[in-house]
Each structure stands twice: as C-alpha cells, then as structure tokens.
C-alpha cells in the first residue's frame, strides 16, 4: 500500500519519577539526571509520553494502587523495571519487574539502586533490540518469499506463514508495536512494510482486547496474508508515485478477490482467513468491495483487520503525501461513519499509545 520509508524517531531513554514529596523529588531528580534524563510528575499529574526506561514511585500508600494501574496501562506489558519507595506497611505485592525500599532509606542508597536498575535495563534493552532486528529480518524475508511465490503461481508454504505469524507475535509481545514499527520502517520495502505493519497492529490490538493465543495467532496470520493478492497487481501500479487513475483503481480493487482465489485454489486455509483476505475492504454500510457486504455480514475478524489496515495506511508515508499523525489518523477514522466498527475503533485507541494518563491525585 504505502511506498517510501516512514522514519519514526528513536525515543531518548528516560527515568519516570512519580513523587508527592517535592523536596525529595527534586533531590532524586538531580541525582538521576547525572546518568539519564529524568521526567518527574506529582500526584494527580499526567504521565509524560513515551515508554520510560525505569519507573520510580514515591507516593503515599493510598495513591499506590491507582498509580500502579496508570503506569501498567502506559507500559502495556513491556518489561519496565519499577522501584517503589514504601511508607509504613504499604508494601506492593511482589512482581518480577518491581522492587521496593522503605521511603526512609538513605538517598545515596536509593540512587545507587536506581543506577543499578538503569544499567540492567540498558543491557536488557540492547539484547531486546538485537532480537527485534533479527525478527524483523526474518519476517521480511518470509513475507518476500510468500509474495514472490504467489506472484509466480507457486504454492505458499503453510510452515512459512505460521513461522512469520509467530515472529510478529513474539516481536510485538516483547518489544511493543512502536518498536516493531521503528525497525520495520527502517528500510524501504514497499508492500512488505504495510503487511508487517498491519500484522504488528493486529498483534497489538488482539492483545489489547484479550484474545486467547489461538485467536491471536489467527488474527495475526490473517493480517500477514490480507494483501497477498497484490502479488498479482502490476508493480507500476503498486509503486506509482501519485494517485491512481480510475482504471488503475479498478485493477487495484481486484486484489482482495485475487488473493482469496489464490488461497482457495491452494487449499488448507481456514474460512476465517479467506474471509479476511477477500473482505478487508468491505464497509459496514455496504459501500465497500468486492462484494458490498454490510452490517452483520462483515465478520468480527474482518472488522478488526480493517481498523488496523486503515490506521496503518493513514500513518504510512507515501511519495505524494506526508503521513498523518496518530491523532489525526484516529480523528479521520472516527469521521468515517458507516465504514469501521465504532466499538472496535474505540478499543483500538490505546494501541496507538497517544495521549497521557493521569496518576492518582
């Protein structure tokens, strides 16, 4: 779909310090800033954007639970270590990514603990980055092979499709959707980028709405195959540096049917996957293509992929326009009345990791 790389700026690492003790907060901030940027908020403030490297929480006991929930929503399952400075008997339950110290611990000891966490988090992040790069290269090679095989009329290897699906799920589960997009969009890979982008969003979205492992695999697999019909669309149309002509649009709109027919002819693909490949451009009001499905005729899996597909397309850079920001893309999608499922669209918003979350006041 999109041509040309989208450059997503790397996020500078920072320590998030949440504290309701102004004097101690200032002192800790100064110490942490010697080794890493420190962003501080007080009780009731909005969390800064982005994913923190390390989180330090220094709050009164009554605010701990709500703050933990807000931070958990922000990190969305990513491995972000946290240090909680406890007061009295208010000790949070143990967790693999969290340690605690009494708030009365000497400041030098607290800072030493924070510095050790920063060092450990940095080493772990470097290891994750290496794994992510390897998974991106593997997924790109698999998608390229799938498209090449489809273009040549050769059968798709089910093992390759499943392996590509697993690679995307593993990458997004460990590193998150933003890191996945950073590495996927590092180089210009044309339609492969869009495929891997939509698959990444599908993996993240499926996790957000709590799909079980089997349904999540099916969703990501459908996303990986949703545009396979473009393997039979002329390259000069796919790569055209500008809007398509009416005839080119007619040919492009053939790709869902081509892809579904290709998979049906090969056999071995479950009906839900075929449904997504053929119908991911259908609209709830019946104005989509190729079959003009409407309402309940558009299956849930198709609706989910449609949200991921449209958001990815709007935020990808094309040679004839700049990408929309996440906020602008979501605003555009909410205005597409009759196209996308509004309940799913609302559920998709957290996947974009935009906006702030307030800690307890």
Automatic annotation (TrEMBL):
Residues 169-361 form the HD-GYP domain. It holds the Pfam family HD_5. Residues 191-314 form the HD domain. SMART domains: HDc (SM00471). PROSITE patterns: HD, HD_GYP. It comes from the Bacteria. This is HD domain-containing protein.
């Amino acid at each position: 779909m999109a041509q040309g790389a989208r450059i997503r700026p790397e996020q500078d690492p920072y320590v998030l310090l949440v504290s309701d003790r102004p004097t101690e907060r200032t002192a800790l901030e100064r110490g942490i800033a010697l080794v890493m940027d420190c962003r501080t908020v007080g009780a009731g403030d909005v969390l800064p954007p982005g994913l923190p490297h390390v989180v330090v929480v220094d709050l009164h006991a009554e605010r701990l639970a709500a703050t933990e929930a807000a931070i958990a929503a922000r990190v969305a399952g990513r491995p972000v270590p946290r240090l909680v400075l406890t007061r009295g008997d208010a000790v949070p339950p143990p967790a693999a990514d969290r340690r605690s110290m009494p708030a009365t611990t000497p400041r030098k000891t607290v800072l030493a603990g924070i510095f050790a966490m920063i060092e450990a988090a940095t080493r772990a992040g470097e290891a994750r980055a290496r794994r992510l790069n390897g998974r991106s290269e593997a997924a790109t090679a698999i998608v390229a092979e799938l498209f090449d095989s489809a273009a040549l009329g050769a059968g798709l290897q089910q093992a390759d499709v499943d392996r590509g699906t697993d690679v995307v799920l593993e990458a997004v589960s460990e590193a998150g959707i933003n890191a996945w997009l950073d590495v996927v969009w590092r180089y210009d890979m044309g339609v492969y980028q869009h495929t891997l982008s939509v698959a990444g969003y599908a993996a993240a979205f499926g996790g957000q709405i709590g799909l079980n492992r089997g349904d999540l695999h099916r969703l990501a697999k459908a996303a990986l195959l949703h545009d396979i019909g473009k393997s039979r669309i002329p390259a000069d149309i796919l790569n055209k540096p500008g809007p398509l002509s009416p005839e080119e649009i007619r040919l492009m709109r053939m790709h869902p049917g081509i892809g579904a027919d290709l998979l049906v002819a090969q056999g071995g693909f479950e009906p839900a996957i075929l449904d997504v490949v053929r119908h991911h451009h259908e609209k709830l009001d019946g104005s989509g293509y190729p079959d003009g499905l409407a309402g309940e005729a558009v299956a849930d899996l198709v609706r989910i992929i449609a949200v991921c597909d449209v958001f990815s397309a709007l935020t990808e850079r094309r040679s004839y326009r700049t990408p929309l920001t996440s906020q602008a893309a979501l605003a555009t999608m909410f205005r597409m009345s009759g196209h996308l499922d509004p309940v799913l669209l609302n559920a998709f918003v957290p996947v974009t990791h935009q906006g702030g979350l307030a800690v307890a006041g």
